[in-house]
Amino acid sequence: MTDLGMPAIPASRSQLVTPGLAFSNWGHHFTAEQNLDLKAAVKAARAPLSVIVQVTKRCNFGCSFCSETLQIPDPTLKELELMRLHLAGVPRIFLSGGEPLMRKDFGEIVDMYYEDHILAVPTNATHGLQHAKGIAGKIAFANIGLEGPRTTTTRVRGNYDQIMAGVHALKDAGIPLSLSAVVYRSTLSALPFTCQIADVLEAGKVKLIMPLRKGNALDLDENEFISDTEAAETFARLSELRTIHGWRPALRMTTWTPENEGHMIVIEPNGVARAWPVYDAPDLWERLGNVLEEPIEAIWERYRFKENHFAKYLGRSIRTTTHTEAGR
Length: 328
Ligand code: SF4
Description:
- There is one protein chain.
- By secondary structure, this protein is an alpha/beta fold.
- 29% of the residues lie in helices and 20% in strands.
- Strand 5, helix 3 and strand 6 form a beta-alpha-beta unit.
- Helix 2 runs parallel beside helix 3.
- The site of iron/sulfur cluster has 12 residues, from loops.
- Pfam families: Radical_SAM.
- InterPro entries: Aldolase_TIM, Radical_SAM_PqqE_MftC-like, rSAM, rSAM_sf.
């Protein structure tokens, strides 16, 4: 327990998931032995490494890149319990949205899932104050969407000051943080500030993601989408700045190459599991099954992006640096 009487966040550097594969509590990502045979690991797997469970589609923001523009009623706690039973064997679960912290019973959902899974919570943090104490010590990290300084974040995503108020509430409760920034051409100059903010917050990582052409992003100016070459140059420049300035958070950048197609498994509020993003599919989704009706093993069996899934989550198909420990 901490001095504040809250459960302590596990201090260990990493936790073993399967032989040869661990989850880093510092950088908030999976790590594998260097000589891990990816194809063999995929062949041996009976379930995904990570799934995204949408506990709601509702959100109080309207980010300019948001793909979640269609509404589905929230799953009940009973349905979430059935999903949990069918997700046995999945090491990490993102309790996601929409904005997951908009659910008043979010603490109960965390209580339902945290003993069997590494939990991560992607959030805009604006409801952080309501939930921070109830989920502290139970989630591995909160992944905050933040495009950098006030003007940029407010323009691209939503109210920076509301986000940061929630971020401070989560941090004060001892919840480990990571940041996630969607990269536009017009936000490139803000990225070093994003890294600096992440460093000040002692975040585990900064995830840089290119927008996908879906939902609100269909209205973006074409000029906002940078090429893969520009993304590579951006990552190289940020990595260099990271060294110069001594930023500790890991950097991870995902671009939409064939190696990353369909790597995510998203469970919608109605239990429908989908591979995402599938580039030539309508709405970039490919239906895989329903976790209210069948266990994840059955869905995993028919999932055709297994290798992309493992390669992405093990950092082999994306650009990465690792978290730097204090004192190094
Ligand atoms: S991207 Fe996330 S925070 Fe933004 S509107 Fe969509 S669900 Fe809400």
